[in-house]
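Subject: for your reference before the review

Hello V.,

The reviewers asked for a structural picture of the protein, and I figured it would be easier to keep everything in one thread rather than splitting it across files. Below is the amino acid sequence we used in the manuscript, unchanged from the supplementary table.
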Amino acid sequence: MKVLITGGAGFIGSHVIEELLEYEFQVVSVDNYVTGFKENLCEGVKKYEMDLNDPKFESIFIEEQPDYVIHLAAQASVMVSMNDPYFDFLTNTVGTINVMLLSKKYNVRKFLFASSAAVYGEPEYLPIDENHSINSQSFYALSKHSAENYIKHYSVFNGLDSCILRFSNVYGPRQNEMGEAGVISIFINRLLADKEVSIYDGSQTRDFIYVKDVASACRLALMSEAKGVFNISSCSETGIEELYNKITELTGINTIPLYEPRRLGEIVQSILDNRRAINEFDWHVQYSLQEGLNETTRFYTNKRLSVNVEK
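And here is what came back from the structure prediction:
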């Protein structure tokens, strides 16, 4: 089976590719390398450098004839979306529609879309299940939910077999601190570089999910008969200050952070109910937060050591 992955050179995409190769899929990666890196891609992957809205993008479908599509490419920064909502819409909504239309045109068996917990906004109850109301509080969340709605309607009207995965806060090795960064990557890298760490308010809680668990969810959802929307999360709540303390213990670097006001578009609490994914495609979280933090900290520590040796 051949899988085309958009955003394959990105943080999540590169781990999904490794998961699929382990299970002997053929994999094709499409990435414009704005936030992804060629070095993230392992051997055995056919690579295309292209933007999703490029008119030549269709040629990849003609050439490769993929059986499945996993659409991960996105503008993933809330702050970028608030500053440039048009770019956010063009990338996350228009780009998704283009991939979706081509998937149908070239008879893709299943179309998998990566969405976000951000679409829910501030929770009315916890944990948040898939029936929770939608209250997007950033242009990023709005662009993701708009893409979801196009997929849902198109699937009904045109018979595209599709599945939407709403990720909670994904973390792990290869997360790009400067581009698609999450708080864990930022904390670890700034501590290791002996730089000041900013905590924006600090009272927020998040549901952190390790990237390898996300990769297995993508594979299992793709190969199952599951359709509709699924939360992919650890279904556990961790405070940002608690998280910072865990990371300082792992790095052995105890620096007092700089506290700043909460940023525009950020929600306070987020925990996603993951039972639907567990029940419908037999997915289970394999990594605890501590195990994931151990692997992530080890990755960035070794990366920094190797850079220093090269110098």
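For the response letter, the relevant points are probably these. The first strand starts at residue 2 and ends at 6. The domain at 2-173+208-234+271-287 is CATH 3.40.50.720 (Rossmann fold).

Happy to draft the paragraph if you're swamped.

O.
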